[in-house]
Amino acid sequence: MKIKLKLFATLTDYLPQPAKKNEVEIEVAANATVSSVIERYNLPPKLVHLVLVNGLYIYPHDRTTQNLNEGDALAIWPPIAGG
Hints:
Number of strands: 5
Structural class: mainly beta
Oligomer: single chain
Low-confidence stretches: none
CATH topology: Ubiquitin-like (UB roll)
Number of domains: 1
CATH class: Alpha Beta
């Protein structure tokens, strides 16, 4: 099934090609979880901070059990410091 993967800030370096700006449509298994996508793209755990599926926050302890569905948008941000 296809989902949209959106990575922000320093995580954009991990997007597979051909990515447009900060997102790409990817093919995942029917039973894919948030964690399985994070692991598949070798996203460093210390950089996976804010995770949303279709705009809803996914708590760290739910990422291994949160299944993805056809057409979902998985968005991930690293920790960001501002001044």
